[in-house]
Design a protein that fits this description.
By secondary structure, the chain is of the alpha/beta class. It has two domains: 121 residues, 3-Layer(aba) Sandwich (Rossmann fold); 192 residues, NAD(P)-binding Rossmann-like Domain (Rossmann fold, 3-Layer(aba) Sandwich), CATH 3.40.50. Helices cover 35% and strands 14% of the residues. A seven-stranded parallel beta sheet has the order 8-7-6-9-10-11-12, sandwiched between helices. Strands 2-1-3-4-5 form a five-stranded parallel beta sheet. Strand 11, helix 11 and strand 12 form a beta-alpha-beta unit. Helix 1 crosses helix 12 and helix 4 crosses helix 6. The longest helix has 20 residues. It is globular, with a radius of gyration of 21 Å. The model has no long low-confidence stretch (mean pLDDT 95).
Amino acid sequence: MMKVAFYDAKPYDQEFFLKASADSRITYVFHHFRLTAANTSTVAGCRAICVFVNDRIDQACLEGLAREGVEIIALRCAGFNQVDLKAAAALGLRVVRVPAYSPHAVAEHTVALLLTLNRKIHRAFNRVREHNFSLNGLVGFDLHGRTAGIVGTGKIGRITAQILRGFGMEVLAYDLFPDEVWAAAHRITYCPLAELFSRSDVISLHTPLTPETHHLINREALALMKNGFYLVNTSRGKLIDTSALIESLKSKKPGGIALDVYEIEEGVFFEDLSHDILQDDELARLVSFPNVLVTSHQGFLTTEALTEIARVTTENLLAFEKGADFLEGTEVKMAY
């Protein structure tokens, strides 16, 4: 029987992982707190751990895990920037992830955010609950005929682009490795990033976080954008310089900002802080703007995505126990 310490566990995690492992030799020990170097003793007796985006898997944490006998780290997410891969390799710890679960889930959430923000659905909902049926201040615009810019054309970016084409939008795209065949098939145009910023009415971010893309949206990028532009980020919070974004919002340049991710999510996203004081001044300022919509990293939260995350993670843990190969493309190594 393989014992796995499971961190930052939420009720939906437990439901889907228990279902996926029902007929297996895996036993999960669910912890509702995040993993850090300070609490690695909680993995005692476990050969494996399962962690999420806000668990802090730095060198000190990895050393603690190795001392406790952990051999494999299973990330139930696609991103792995929270793991010190060099330290993991030096300690002989294997790292696996879920590189793709449901790109449709995130793409559809992207479009849902855009539509909600543009047509002021969230504000209208709150008004009507108070029996205020006025339409003042709820004017949006037709997406049809407007220009959308997609930054990053991996699976999620491509699906988002195709949905927006379905609305009758002109779609521009930027990617370090453009897929010209796909673009031609869907009448999408690749262009330089600066041109995409300056021409787009709506900009949607779908690129991974790397040293090169950190603060991709900064003062210089924001200065290139149209007055009244809409920006949607369902990718990585640190793609956006929050301070620069707040400055732009205060100048009234953006038409609207929709975020499912944020620079410093740890301790805030996925938590109920309704009876507490929000300590992050920049996040508090962001959510105070009437043209900013924030959701708490829920783009992945569909039945299909959760099922796939649990399936891939479970199969990789079972493969490790049997000494078999991991599912293709799921092991994370320094070469990635």
